[in-house]
Amino acid sequence: MRPFTYERALTPADAAGAAAANPGARFIAGGTNLLDLMKLQIETPSHLIDVNGLGLDRIEATDDGGLRIGALVRNTDLAADARVRRDYPVLSRALLAGASAQLRNKATTAGNLLQRTRCPYFYDPAQACNKRSPGSGCAALGGYSRQLAVIGVSEACIATHPSDMAVAMRALDAVVETVQPTGTTRKIAIADFHRLPGDTPHIETALEPGELITAVTLPKPLGGRQVYRKVRDRASYAFALVSVAAVVQEDGTGRIAVGGVAHKPWRVEAAEAELPRGAKAVSERLLAGARPTHDNAFKITLVERTIGAVLADGRT
């Protein structure tokens, strides 16, 4: 780990301003991903801005019947919140499917959204990676790609986003709230928050330099049967090969978001119109234009079967 300086921010705007003034700075809260990357010298911040004292750790009801989740709410606390378990069970189940209990005790809402890909070539500094070192190439394209993306990929990157929480939030149409270095605030629909790789896979979100996430807002509850199913290589503490977050209403309509297949939580609203026709019709529309590799072509079938299982759960 390389040397760095450290400060504790006093307000969200101060934190954003300090980050904008120092291009080598990173925010740190739970640190469950950043510290690992620093030890591997994949992330080499010159300055850390500790945001843990900013009071962004509350879950509050909104005036329109939704829920506002502070950026520093721990994953364990969010999963256990009675309002989340009652009104947004798909989110609670997704959180509990992610990581280990120890990590969930430290990981934060904002950090979960911002965690970096688990592509093995990203984690190996000896391998070319456009995300780690722009313009260096993508070793994953000619390498072993079983875990990697099948849709929304580019010639520069086939990495996936690893979050379980973000997949559920995409199904719920969450909104990310931020503060910019000027002190102004903005709201970003989660559909627009994570980017596809294109030719700039190192730019992973819509955040501007220095911009700090302050909260995530959930709209009023959708009702319906809410299901989260994660398919992985072992029963616990593994990232998804494929995951599906679903909200299924009594009339057969609903929402479907998929993880483990793209650079961002993958949802195609037009595919949800196919729900009455079943999983095959939904997955064909959802993954239209997919470009799987030899190693991960199985994910196409796996998505269809997982959606089928989720829909069966949602109708019982």
Short description:
By secondary structure, the chain is an alpha+beta fold. The protein has twelve helices and eleven strands.
Describe the structure.
- By secondary structure, the chain is of the alpha+beta class.
- Helices cover 29% and strands 18% of the residues.
- It is built from 12 helices and 11 strands.
- It has helices at 12-21, 34-39, 75-80, 82-87, 89-97, 101-106, 109-114, 165-172, 190-193, 269-272, 279-286, 298-315; strands at residues 5-8, 25-28, 47-50, 59-61, 67-70, 175-179, 185-189, 212-218, 225-231, 242-248, 254-259.
- The strands form 3 sheets. A 5-stranded antiparallel β-sheet has the order 4-5-8-6-7. A 3-stranded parallel β-sheet has the order 1-3-2, covered by helices on one side.
- Helix 11 (279-286) packs across helix 12.
- The radius of gyration is 19 Å and the shape is globular.
- The model has no long low-confidence stretch (mean pLDDT 97).
Mean pLDDT: 97
How would you sum up the global shape?
Answer: globular
Low-confidence stretches: none
Q: List the strand order in the largest sheet.
A: 4-5-8-6-7
Instruction: State the end-to-end distance.
Output: 51 Å
Multimerization state: single chain
Query: How many whole angstroms does the radius of gyration measure?
Result: 19 Å
Spell out the blueprint of helices and strands:
Blueprint: E1 5-8, H1 12-21, E2 25-28, H2 34-39, E3 47-50, E4 59-61, E5 67-70, H3 75-80, H4 82-87, H5 89-97, H6 101-106, H7 109-114, H8 165-172, E6 175-179, E7 185-189, H9 190-193, E8 212-218, E9 225-231, E10 242-248, E11 254-259, H10 269-272, H11 279-286, H12 298-315
Parallel strand pairs: 1-3, 2-3
Antiparallel strand pairs: 4-5, 5-8, 6-7, 6-8, 9-10, 10-11
